[in-house]
Amino acid sequence: MEQSSRAQRKTKRRKTNRILNTAIAVVVLLIIIVGFTIFAGGNDEEPAAPEETKQNQTAAVSDEETEEKPTDEITEEPAETEEPAGEEETEEKPADEEVVVSEGTEPNVEQDIVNPNWEGVGTTQSGEHTSSFETDSADWQEKEQALAYATGIPLSGMTVWYISGNGPQAAIGTVSPKSNKNEAYRVYIEWVDGEGWKPTKVQKLEENDKAR
Fold this sequence. Notes:
Elements (H helix, E strand, L loop, with lengths): L1 H74 L1 H5 L1 H10 L7 E4 L5 E6 L23 H14 L6 E8 L4 E8 L7 E8 L3 E10 L7
Antiparallel strand pairs: 1-2, 2-6, 3-4, 4-5, 5-6
């Protein structure tokens, strides 16, 4: 009986030892699996770091570009500040005044025309000016230029009927377009030092009393 009991005990111990050994083996196996998973997972995550770094760098570049945009707008401001300067120049330049056309009050005068914007036609003369009525003189030719300028008739298409003195530094001339001698204008001009002859008034005549 005692031998049978001992045999049963040994058998139970063996079974118990097997179970314990099996359990220990399972635990060790689990530890190995878990450890491998942790290390393997850690290695998988490491390559992701450079990609995240690249993404962060890309995001940083985008942020810098976004922050630089306002500076581009700031650089455009000086161009806007130049506009007032142009406006000042426009204000300094006098605006053209309207031409004054009125009904003639003298015999044979249909209209009186005064243009406040008339200027001197320029001159090649220097020194003290003396009005000349010699047709080949520079002064006479500049008088003709002033008559053409005042009437708008081209110099090459204009007939000069006469030019006479109207004081030491003024003159009067009567002209017509060559295409119509009955259309006549009496032009008043005056000398301006440094500027030449300048028209002061144009009279449109009812008829050309010098074409007879």
